[in-house]
Amino acid sequence: MVRRTAMGLAGALALAGCSNTGPATPPAPCPRITVLSDGADLTRFQPGAIQDLATTTFDARLIGFQASCDYARRREGVTVTLSAIFDVERGPVARSRQVNLPWFVAVTDAGDAQLIDRQDFVTQVNFESNAGRLRVQSSPVRLNFPADERLVENHNVRLSFQLTPDELALNRRRGPR
Asked: Which of 62, 114, 126, 160 could form a disulfide with 109 if both were Cys (CB 3.0 to 4.6 A apart)?
């Protein structure tokens, strides 16, 4: 009995040693990723009409994102993959079941003093006949940060709707929702 127990313990210790793969690779660094508060809402109205709830064609909110950071081949850089998440409501005067959401991703330095990169996107939303509100996620966007550039953590990634001056003014008047 003692011999069986000793052999069982030896076998368990041998198997435990096989699972040790050495020191774990630290996770890839990520930049700070945020949604710009002034650009998180996009409300479109019927052209030429007074801007109120009854003349809304759609109302959208950029509510967040999903992001991951991974080392590129041989740790030559870091690839950031992100998708924007939107809540979209079809307005009472909408004529189409399709909405195009213009948005952008901007990369800046740590103090937001220098724009390093900016990419514009459009996410298409298609409402079914019985749907008035949807949550959608954009296609993934990839940003590459070279290893020889400043540290990845010293960058900001900002997401926002692409707004007209009037749409930006509306967001600033009504404040965060």
From this structure: 114
